[in-house]
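It is worth pausing here to work through a concrete case rather than discussing structure prediction in the abstract. The textbook approach is simple: state the sequence, then state the predicted structure, then interpret. We follow exactly that order.
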Amino acid sequence: MPLDPWDLSDRPNDPLPGWPFEFEHLVPFYRRAQEVCGLGPFSYGAGEWTSPERPEIPLEADLSTRVYQFGHGKRFTRDFPAQLRESPGARLLYNATVCRLEADARAERVFCIEGAGSLGRSFRVEARTFVLAAGGIENARLLLLSSRDRDVGASGGTGFGNQHGWVGRCFMEHPRDHALTLQPYSRRLFSDATFFDPFQAPDGTVVGGRIGLSERAVLHDGLPNASVTLLPKIRDRSTLIDWATRLWLCPHSSGRRGFRGGYGWSRMKTPARWLDGFRLIVNAEQRPNPENRVVLSDQMDRFGLRRARLQ
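Step two, the predicted structure:
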């Protein structure tokens, strides 16, 4: 799922400024990513995906129904690596770890990286352009390690691109809460809420409904953004009935192992008979706090480089 347009807006309750561009700036890249990831059209509202069999449920004003899209991991684990291996313009280095970025004299651009192989042999790579795509923690670690002062302290020294001391700051984890249960007033909810279980749309796209916060709730009520997934809660039955539910009441939901309380519940026979509610999986957002940050630890990795530490 993409960010919401209001995710990039200034938040009245946050002392820090918002993003330096608007949502429309990201849309061309999102559309390209949809194709690369093997997803469907760039459409994440509920209206484009509902049907009489999977209707949208009316929600309160501060909530809205939207969707996740699900792709296939094999594009990244099999298809794209195979294309890279066959490409005459690409060279893959396996078991190679980047250890340091080398900047030019004015520290304005990276012209070289230092790395090490699995046997400890070092190497250097020079290029006009580098893409730093090591993840939120390792990106910051590499920048902090790439100080002109080789003996950087735990705070990370100056580091590359850290003239203002912001590298690694405002680290935001993705808290996930499992504490809430939705207990329906009517068992009809299990037939009405099938939109929230992943399904294949007529064009082949696999989508699943989710509950999101409205723009008003985020910007005017000052709430952190959040997304809620509905997963079924199996009724408390005997071991024998539970076994039967998993193995033969839902033969097509999750392969040979049967249904185990996750996605696939809408394909059960008479789900209202076997479920008594929904577990709400709340994916929450953290506030950007400069004191939540990635710093360098005093512990060393096998290459003699300081490990990352979350503060």
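Step three, interpretation. The first helix runs from residue 23 to 36. DSSP finds seven helices and eleven strands in the chain.
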